[in-house]
Amino acid sequence: MNKPEDWTLRTIEQEANKFLKQYNPGLTIPVPIEEILELRLNIRLVVYPDLENRFGINGIINNSFDAIGIDEHVYVQQKERARFTLAEELGHMVLHREWYIKHGPRSFTDFLDWHAKLDAKIYDYIERQAKTFASFVLAPSSTLIPEWERFTAGKSSRSLQLDQLPDNFPDFCKKFGLAPQSMLLRLEKSGFLTISQDQKDLLFGKRI
Amino acid sequence: MKSQPTTNFGEFFRNRRISLGMTLRSFCERFGYDPGNISRLERNMLPPTVDDEKLAGYAKALQISKDTEPWVTFHDLAYIAKGFIPKDVQTENTMFLPAFFRTMRNKKMDKNKFEELIDFLNDSNE
């Protein structure tokens, strides 16, 4: 069992690949994440109206890891974002479930205190790791790399600056069912794209 | 298709949908239902309609043939569920208690807001 601070980019990618080998062996893209979640893993999908407006939350997984909640507007109106959110929650299930069972709250009364006491740094790791897992699941290297090579065939280098992205980048994202913002971060993770901090602040807001 | 043993309308509904290989999205897109409402129905947070025509519509979507055993069960459960008050029967085991959740800016939530969130996640009126 890994503690949140033990996961690395490499081990998260390994877990994502293991997950795909089991649930999407044909490496279909876009990865049928909702089918995997509901039909293969039998996880209950719960759609909540106003979850994001009221709590700033777009996705949530329960403490028995058998139900995932999602904001209704995101689910209905922003399909690509919803796919990423659901994959993130599955990331918690894969990466953090065992740790949570061992170190999480022991009782209902302990529940609120545990969350209040959870170290902010650990919380941050946990959320970033789930996001990383999602990006590796939805855009696995084995599919992303050849697609990226095709996409950048006319360029002198495979590694681009943000402003060198071809205009049809949204079409590239669509192949994976990913929102462009999520794809930008995925490409950066694999060293295919360089995004300056100023550009990140502009694109994603501060603190990415 | 053989029905799975079930205790309530929402569970019965969801089991049928899943056994037909339909995700919430594909089911709602195909039959023109609202995902939020179907989700609440499946969690027993929204009492089902007992309007015969609407129930028959659900039954058709779930491939439940008229006058079969699942048809009877489906209707019986709908009538039982009509008088069902979810909050009263919820226990710690059936509540949605969050383990992890992603806020917009990866910020932790304070305890009061967290309590409010738990109420929200388990409130049948939401």
UniProtKB/TrEMBL annotation, chain A:
A Pfam family the protein falls into: Peptidase_M78
Q: Where is the IrrE N-terminal-like domain?
A: 78-151
* Xref: PANTHER family: ANTITOXIN HIGA1, BLL7220 PROTEIN
Name assigned to this protein = IrrE N-terminal-like domain-containing protein
Source species of the chain: Candidatus Gottesmanbacteria bacterium GW2011_GWA2_47_9
What does the record give as the organism's lineage? Bacteria, Candidatus Gottesmaniibacteriota
UniProtKB/TrEMBL annotation, chain B:
Question: Which PROSITE patterns does this entry report, sorted A to Z?
Answer: HTH_CROC1
Q: Which GO terms describe its molecular function?
A: DNA binding
What CDD domains does its record include?
HTH_XRE
Stretches of the chain forming a coiled coil according to its record: none
Q: Please name the InterPro entries in this protein's record.
A: Cro/C1-type_HTH (IPR001387), Lambda_DNA-bd_dom_sf (IPR010982)
Q: Where is the HTH cro/C1-type domain?
A: 13-69
The protein's matches in SUPFAM superfamilies, at most eight in alphabetical order, are given as: lambda repressor-like DNA-binding domains (SSF47413)
* Membrane-spanning intervals of the chain: none
Q: Can you say what this protein is called? A: HTH cro/C1-type domain-containing protein
Q: Which organism is it from?
A: Candidatus Gottesmanbacteria bacterium RIFCSPLOWO2_01_FULL_48_11
